[in-house]
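Task 17 of the worksheet. Students: predict the tertiary structure of the chain below and write it out as structure tokens. Keep your answer in the requested format; marks are given for formatting as well as content.
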Amino acid sequence: MNTSNYPPAHELIDILEKNRSLITTNNIAAIREALSLYSSSIRHSDDDAVDEFALKMKLKLAKKRTQGYSGWNKCTQEYLSNMLHELVEKGDPLDVAIVAMMLYHNNQTIQKSDHQEHNTMNDECDETGWWSDWW
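Model answer:
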């Protein structure tokens, strides 16, 4: 397919980064298709690394869902931020990325660590009682 009718890849990425609301469940397929036009002709090792890492995240999350875990999208910013800091200390980049994704998806930023256990969970966050044993 001819990509000359499309803006350069960096412009598309800038548009998506500046307008995060454009990335929705309804249009993610179109975004993937547009990005694949570029990746087929200018595939970079970064793309491969992100694809592999995203797959590992999806597999870990899918495994947890089959075990009945859910509710992260209802967690407070404080709770997820504290969890993120704890996971950084444990050292597993996959777990850190998963919680970073949760914060990102919830439109939350990372709060500074308060060096306390994450016991400030809101009731909606812990629907299934799984956060205490997730990691």
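Marker's comment: Residues 1-43 form one domain. Residues 84 and 100 are 7 Å apart (CA to CA).
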